[in-house]
Amino acid sequence: MIRSADLVAFHDGAARLAGALGEAIEANHHHNQSLWKEEDLARRRNVPDSEIAANKRAIDGHNQKRNDAIERVDELLLQSLASVTPKKEARLSSETAGGMIDRLSILSLKIRAMREQTRRTDVDRAHIETCEQKLARLLEQRGDLAGCLDRLLAEAARGESYFKVYRQFKMYNDPKLNPALYGDKRT
3-state DSSP call for residue 14? Predict the structure, then answer.
């Protein structure tokens, strides 16, 4: 089972994760990092529209793989909890552990970017102070979410809570499901 402290250390680049679960978490984080870079590039205004279109397509691909990795994380965590029978009064968590791990990954990217803003030398003190306040808030959010993840996994291990794999069924990448790709004949 994963602990949030190990996860935060991994997201901060201070630790590695092992096994199939570690690989799925690493894949999720890799695609979040790639999404972050592509999203930044897609906001450029000084390049041809064809470059932005390429960024948007890359975003779609990474987002699909990111969601696949979240589902894989949930599958692996639920496999590790397979011997636990939820108690009759167990609570269903509307957010999965994989979803929380994904959000922690995204928060780590925001923290890294905001920390960089606090170290800039080409901006005024007001910018630095605003970014320091935002950084403190992001760190608080990460601590809160990490605690929620630890609690969910501990409760699930005791049979007090449970979660399910919620499939995203991303339709925009599927030529059989996206009308713009298969050619909607109704219009």
Answer: coil
